[in-house]
Amino acid sequence: MSKRKQKVEFRYYEMPNDEIVLALLGESWIRSYSEGIDGLHFHNYLEIGYCYDGFGALELENESIRSGPDMFSIVPPNCPHRASSDPGTKSYWEWLFIDAEQCLKNMYRDDTLFIQEILKKIYRRPLLLRASEYPVLNQIILNIIREMRKKDIYYKESVKGYVHVLIVELLRLNDQEEQKAKIKKQTSRISGALDYVKENYRDEIKISQLAQACNMSESHFRRVFLETMNMKPVDYINLIRIQKACELIQKTQISMEDVAYKVGFTAVSTFNRNFKKLVGISPYQWKQSAENFEGKLLNYRISAQKGW
């Protein structure tokens, strides 16, 4: 008999027009977060919770982290979780749901690769942090809450600015990467090749085609690409294919053989070798890894309902 899937709810939210933050604020959020709540849930937006009072836990799939006053949670989309209160007590939380992707699109419209790289980093894992240990991040979150509570003139513009700063702080927290200006300067000479790979990774790609997309000779292109990306063109092609493979593994249950062919590998052995080279583990191991939130959703019996 197959093991019955654990129930998890999808609580989706509709973002108001011309907004990138939905705020759930006020005394109505002073409640017991254990009563009437059965199982984990996940959302369609980045969730930030701020705890003012009461003790409990942020419950994830495989761990439970104690929560208390002056702590805040940061939970990526599609990550099963729930906040709970200690038995017989109430907690005071306020909640922000943030459309980080739209914020980035507003600022970097033509740089899809950069946007996806940022989202990948800030959605790496859920966090529960103490305000005293992360004062800058804490103040940014409180500023967003203040703006959303008061809604003074120009509050939307203010919130958009704070969200962008929030994303920067999350990037710094999750990974120390070079600033966007440097990345754009480095990649501008080969942007045609990067776009070509993004659009044609499923097919056979010749280096001469990439050179042509950048209006360079093949030998000059190879040299410029290596200097810019610190990898050979063929390695970049494989990198994009493996990234696309990860998306398929996360969101579908098709076989690894089908994944390999759909992302441009003609042999499963080549796919497995390149996957382990880039990711460090096999595709099968990665499917079960702790960071693969979306893939793990396939193991649940999911019901959908509109958020609170």
Automatic annotation (TrEMBL):
Domain HTH araC/xylS-type residues, every copy: 191-289
UniProt keyword annotation of Transcription regulation present: yes
GO function term, MF aspect, one: DNA-binding transcription factor activity
Gene3D superfamilies the UniProt entry points to: Homeodomain-like (1.10.10.60), Jelly Rolls (2.60.120.10)
Superkingdom: Bacteria
Keywords: DNA-binding, Transcription, Transcription regulation
One Pfam family hit: HTH_18
Protein's UniProt name: Helix-turn-helix domain-containing protein
Species per Swiss-Prot/TrEMBL record: Defluviitalea raffinosedens
